[in-house]
Design goal:
The protein is α+β, with helices and mostly antiparallel strands. The protein has two domains: about 10-110, 4'-phosphopantetheinyl transferase domain (Ribosomal Protein L22, Chain A, Alpha-Beta Complex), CATH 3.90.470.20; about 115-215, 4'-phosphopantetheinyl transferase domain (Ribosomal Protein L22, Chain A). About 30% of the residues lie in helices and about 30% in strands. The protein is built from six helices and ten strands. The strands form three sheets. The protein has a five-stranded antiparallel sheet with strand order 6-10-9-8-7, with helices on one face. The chain has a three-stranded antiparallel sheet with strand order 1-5-4, with helices on one face. The chain is globular. The N and C termini lie far apart (about 35 Å).
Length: about 220
């Protein structure tokens, strides 16, 4: 499927979150179809099929490769560290990846970056006690749509978690979110980590999904 026409950078003030690029892919293709979009699709398809049994996982891996080539003109492969953090092979830029059942987002930056994309469902609201701190509960109580707010908080924390990527970091105990500008469809949060460092998270609300991005400028 074609790249989604979502120019998030246009809505992000450069004084808050400069220096990154994000691409989206709406994928419903088979692994074979996706491989046809790649520069060396036949060999890459064989590699992915030998590494992953699940057709879903095969499509996800191929869609990441397609997005890297088509949106970023990046032909490097993605490797994963022991903590699951992705990295570009032979490229010193940072990469973050997130996907739902039908959407994929890939972001690249010269700073550490984390992104999260979630479809708009009530799942986060029902699981809110697993990731909300007592100091964050007021954000749900004070908003008109607590279901959406729970999802925004979830994606913001996930993006920050991916950016920091350190052992022992837990969403529900030692990663605190503070609302700075909490107005849909764009919200700004400050996330405070256990070492007292902090970063900013920008969260975007669209008709069918929520997307958050966190960048480390330290």
């Amino acid at each position: 499927m074609p790249l989604l026409n979502l120019d998030l950078r246009h809505n992000i003030p450069t004084s808050i979150l400069p220096g990154f690029d994000v691409g989206f892919w709406s994928f419903g293709e088979t692994a074979q179809d996706l491989s046809l979009l790649l520069a060396d699709g036949e060999n890459y398809l064989k590699k992915i099929q030998s590494a992953y049994v699940s057709p879903k996982r095969q499509r996800e891996k191929l869609a990441v490769k397609v997005l890297l080539e088509k949106h970023f003109s990046c032909f490097e492969e993605v490797a994963y560290l022991s903590n699951g953090c992705p990295q570009l092979v032979n490229d010193d830029r940072f990469v973050s990846i997130s996907h739902s059942s039908s959407l994929l987002a890939v972001a690249i930056s010269h700073q550490r970056i984390g992104i999260d994309l979630e479809e708009r469902t009530e799942r986060a609201y029902h699981l809110r006690q697993k990731f909300l701190l007592p100091s964050e509960e007021w954000m749900l109580a004070a908003c008109e749509d607590p279901v959406l707010e729970a999802l925004k908080i979830w994606t913001a924390k996930e993006a920050a978690f991916k950016m920091k990527s350190v052992d022992g970091l837990l969403l529900h105990t030692n990663l605190e979110l503070q609302a700075v500008d909490n107005h849909s469809p764009i919200s700004l949060y400050k996330v405070v980590f256990p070492d007292s460092s902090h970063s900013m998270v920008r969260t975007f609300v669209f008709s069918d999904f929520v997307f958050s991005v966190c960048i480390d400028y330290a």
